[in-house]
Amino acid sequence: MDDTLFQLKFTAKQLEKLAKKAEKDSKTEQAKVKKALQQKNVECARVYAENAIRKKNEGLNWLRMASRVDAVASKVQTAVTMKGVTKNMAQVTKALDKALGSMDLQKVSAVMDKFEQQVQNLDVHTSVMEDSMSSATTLTTPQEQVDSLIVQIAEENGLEVMDQLNQLPEGASAMGESSTRSQEDQLSRRLAALRN
Fold first, then answer.
1. CA 12, CA 6: separation in Å to the nearest integer?
2. Confidence of residue 160 (pLDDT cuts 50, 70, 90)
3. pTM surpassing 0.70?
4. What pLDDT digit, counting tens, does each position of 30-75 carry?
5. With b meaning 16 or more CB within 10 Å and e meaning fewer, what string describes 146-184?
6. Neighbours of 115 (CB within 10 A)
7. 112-120 LR contacts (CB < 8 Å, sep 24+)
8. Given 48, 92, 175, 180, which is the most exposed site by the fewest CB atoms within 10 A?
Protein backbone atom coordinates (compact mmCIF):
# COMPACT_ATOMS: atom_id res chain seq x y z
CA MET A 1 0.00 0.00 0.00
CA ASP A 2 2.86 2.39 0.83
CA ASP A 3 4.53 1.62 -2.53
CA THR A 4 1.29 2.47 -4.34
CA LEU A 5 1.07 5.72 -2.41
CA PHE A 6 4.65 6.63 -3.40
CA GLN A 7 3.95 5.89 -7.08
CA LEU A 8 0.81 8.03 -7.03
CA LYS A 9 2.62 10.98 -5.45
CA PHE A 10 5.51 10.62 -7.90
CA THR A 11 3.10 10.56 -10.86
CA ALA A 12 1.30 13.66 -9.57
CA LYS A 13 4.65 15.52 -9.37
CA GLN A 14 5.51 14.50 -12.95
CA LEU A 15 2.14 15.74 -14.18
CA GLU A 16 2.64 19.05 -12.37
CA LYS A 17 6.02 19.46 -14.10
CA LEU A 18 4.38 18.83 -17.47
CA ALA A 19 1.76 21.46 -16.62
CA LYS A 20 4.47 24.02 -15.79
CA LYS A 21 6.32 23.23 -19.03
CA ALA A 22 3.14 23.71 -21.07
CA GLU A 23 2.49 27.04 -19.33
CA LYS A 24 6.04 28.15 -20.13
CA ASP A 25 5.55 27.12 -23.77
CA SER A 26 2.31 29.12 -23.82
CA LYS A 27 4.15 32.24 -22.65
CA THR A 28 6.80 31.69 -25.34
CA GLU A 29 4.06 31.55 -27.97
CA GLN A 30 2.51 34.74 -26.56
CA ALA A 31 5.88 36.47 -27.00
CA LYS A 32 5.84 35.31 -30.62
CA VAL A 33 2.35 36.84 -30.99
CA LYS A 34 3.72 40.17 -29.77
CA LYS A 35 6.67 40.01 -32.16
CA ALA A 36 4.42 39.13 -35.11
CA LEU A 37 2.07 42.00 -34.26
CA GLN A 38 5.02 44.39 -34.07
CA GLN A 39 5.97 43.23 -37.56
CA LYS A 40 2.33 43.80 -38.60
CA ASN A 41 1.91 40.12 -39.49
CA VAL A 42 -1.55 39.29 -38.17
CA GLU A 43 -1.71 35.90 -39.90
CA CYS A 44 1.39 34.64 -38.07
CA ALA A 45 0.13 36.23 -34.86
CA ARG A 46 -3.07 34.21 -35.21
CA VAL A 47 -1.10 30.95 -35.59
CA TYR A 48 1.05 31.77 -32.55
CA ALA A 49 -2.06 32.73 -30.55
CA GLU A 50 -3.66 29.38 -31.41
CA ASN A 51 -0.48 27.62 -30.27
CA ALA A 52 -0.43 29.66 -27.04
CA ILE A 53 -4.01 28.79 -26.19
CA ARG A 54 -3.50 25.13 -27.10
CA LYS A 55 -0.45 24.96 -24.82
CA LYS A 56 -2.32 26.75 -22.04
CA ASN A 57 -5.20 24.27 -22.26
CA GLU A 58 -2.72 21.40 -22.41
CA GLY A 59 -1.18 22.70 -19.19
CA LEU A 60 -4.61 22.93 -17.58
CA ASN A 61 -5.35 19.35 -18.61
CA TRP A 62 -2.05 18.14 -17.10
CA LEU A 63 -2.86 20.07 -13.93
CA ARG A 64 -6.34 18.53 -13.75
CA MET A 65 -4.87 15.07 -14.18
CA ALA A 66 -2.30 15.80 -11.46
CA SER A 67 -5.15 16.91 -9.21
CA ARG A 68 -7.06 13.69 -9.84
CA VAL A 69 -3.99 11.55 -9.17
CA ASP A 70 -3.32 13.56 -6.02
CA ALA A 71 -6.92 12.97 -4.91
CA VAL A 72 -6.43 9.23 -5.37
CA ALA A 73 -3.15 9.46 -3.44
CA SER A 74 -5.03 11.24 -0.66
CA LYS A 75 -7.60 8.45 -0.53
CA VAL A 76 -4.84 5.85 -0.35
CA GLN A 77 -3.14 7.91 2.38
CA THR A 78 -6.44 7.97 4.26
CA ALA A 79 -6.72 4.19 3.95
CA VAL A 80 -3.16 3.71 5.25
CA THR A 81 -3.81 6.13 8.11
CA MET A 82 -7.14 4.51 8.96
CA LYS A 83 -5.46 1.11 9.05
CA GLY A 84 -2.92 2.43 11.56
CA VAL A 85 -5.55 4.23 13.62
CA THR A 86 -7.76 1.13 13.66
CA LYS A 87 -4.84 -0.94 14.94
CA ASN A 88 -4.10 1.65 17.66
CA MET A 89 -7.77 1.84 18.66
CA ALA A 90 -7.91 -1.94 18.96
CA GLN A 91 -4.93 -1.83 21.34
CA VAL A 92 -6.56 0.96 23.35
CA THR A 93 -9.80 -1.02 23.57
CA LYS A 94 -7.91 -4.04 24.93
CA ALA A 95 -6.15 -1.82 27.46
CA LEU A 96 -9.51 -0.31 28.42
CA ASP A 97 -10.97 -3.80 28.97
CA LYS A 98 -8.05 -4.65 31.28
CA ALA A 99 -8.34 -1.37 33.17
CA LEU A 100 -12.09 -1.82 33.62
CA GLY A 101 -11.48 -5.39 34.78
CA SER A 102 -9.16 -4.18 37.53
CA MET A 103 -11.44 -1.19 38.30
CA ASP A 104 -8.38 1.06 38.77
CA LEU A 105 -9.79 4.54 38.04
CA GLN A 106 -6.38 6.01 37.19
CA LYS A 107 -5.76 3.33 34.58
CA VAL A 108 -9.28 3.76 33.16
CA SER A 109 -8.77 7.53 32.98
CA ALA A 110 -5.37 7.18 31.27
CA VAL A 111 -6.74 4.71 28.71
CA MET A 112 -9.75 6.95 28.01
CA ASP A 113 -7.41 9.92 27.47
CA LYS A 114 -5.37 7.87 25.02
CA PHE A 115 -8.55 6.74 23.26
CA GLU A 116 -9.78 10.35 22.92
CA GLN A 117 -6.38 11.36 21.52
CA GLN A 118 -6.62 8.60 18.88
CA VAL A 119 -10.11 9.77 17.89
CA GLN A 120 -8.87 13.38 17.58
CA ASN A 121 -5.95 12.21 15.41
CA LEU A 122 -8.40 10.34 13.21
CA ASP A 123 -10.56 13.47 12.86
CA VAL A 124 -7.54 15.59 11.91
CA HIS A 125 -6.34 13.08 9.31
CA THR A 126 -9.81 12.77 7.83
CA SER A 127 -10.24 16.55 7.69
CA VAL A 128 -6.89 17.07 5.97
CA MET A 129 -7.60 14.40 3.38
CA GLU A 130 -11.07 15.76 2.60
CA ASP A 131 -9.72 19.30 2.22
CA SER A 132 -7.05 18.20 -0.24
CA MET A 133 -9.48 16.68 -2.76
CA SER A 134 -10.99 18.73 -5.59
CA SER A 135 -12.57 18.27 -8.99
CA ALA A 136 -12.19 20.12 -12.29
CA THR A 137 -13.87 20.27 -15.69
CA THR A 138 -12.31 20.36 -19.12
CA LEU A 139 -12.26 23.45 -21.30
CA THR A 140 -12.55 23.87 -25.03
CA THR A 141 -10.71 26.53 -27.03
CA PRO A 142 -13.14 28.73 -28.93
CA GLN A 143 -11.84 31.05 -31.65
CA GLU A 144 -12.83 34.07 -29.54
CA GLN A 145 -10.00 33.23 -27.12
CA VAL A 146 -7.47 33.44 -29.94
CA ASP A 147 -8.82 36.81 -31.06
CA SER A 148 -9.03 38.04 -27.48
CA LEU A 149 -5.40 37.09 -26.84
CA ILE A 150 -4.25 39.01 -29.92
CA VAL A 151 -6.19 42.11 -28.83
CA GLN A 152 -4.92 41.79 -25.25
CA ILE A 153 -1.26 41.50 -26.25
CA ALA A 154 -1.61 44.39 -28.70
CA GLU A 155 -3.18 46.59 -26.00
CA GLU A 156 -0.65 45.60 -23.33
CA ASN A 157 2.21 46.58 -25.59
CA GLY A 158 0.63 49.70 -27.08
CA LEU A 159 0.74 48.29 -30.59
CA GLU A 160 -1.33 50.04 -33.24
CA VAL A 161 -2.83 47.13 -35.13
CA MET A 162 -6.41 48.33 -35.55
CA ASP A 163 -6.19 48.23 -39.37
CA GLN A 164 -4.85 44.70 -39.23
CA LEU A 165 -7.42 43.65 -36.65
CA ASN A 166 -10.15 44.61 -39.10
CA GLN A 167 -8.92 41.71 -41.24
CA LEU A 168 -9.74 39.30 -38.40
CA PRO A 169 -13.12 37.52 -38.19
CA GLU A 170 -16.14 39.38 -36.87
CA GLY A 171 -15.70 38.28 -33.24
CA ALA A 172 -12.21 39.69 -32.92
CA SER A 173 -12.90 42.98 -34.65
CA ALA A 174 -15.95 43.48 -32.43
CA MET A 175 -13.65 43.08 -29.44
CA GLY A 176 -11.27 45.63 -30.91
CA GLU A 177 -14.13 48.04 -31.55
CA SER A 178 -15.49 47.67 -28.03
CA SER A 179 -12.00 48.28 -26.68
CA THR A 180 -11.68 51.42 -28.83
CA ARG A 181 -15.13 52.58 -27.71
CA SER A 182 -14.24 52.07 -24.06
CA GLN A 183 -11.01 54.03 -24.55
CA GLU A 184 -12.96 56.84 -26.26
CA ASP A 185 -15.49 56.81 -23.41
CA GLN A 186 -12.69 57.08 -20.86
CA LEU A 187 -11.10 59.96 -22.75
CA SER A 188 -14.47 61.73 -23.00
CA ARG A 189 -15.01 61.38 -19.25
CA ARG A 190 -11.54 62.70 -18.49
CA LEU A 191 -12.07 65.66 -20.83
CA ALA A 192 -15.42 66.43 -19.16
CA ALA A 193 -13.77 66.23 -15.74
CA LEU A 194 -11.06 68.66 -16.83
CA ARG A 195 -13.65 71.14 -18.14
CA ASN A 196 -15.42 71.17 -14.77
1. 10
2. low
3. no
4. 999 999 989 988 889 899 999 999 999 999 999 989 988 888 888 8
5. bbbbbbebbeeeebebeebbeebeeebbebbeebeeeee
6. 16
7. 115/89, 118/85, 118/88, 118/89, 118/92, 119/89
8. 180
Contacts of 1 (CB under 8 A, 6+ apart): 76, 79, 80, 83
Cα(162)–Cα(121) distance, rounded to whole angstroms? 62
pLDDT over 90 percentage in the chain? 20
pLDDT tens figures, 75-109: 888 878 877 777 777 777 777 677 777 766 777 67
Residue 102: other Cβ atoms inside 10 A: 9
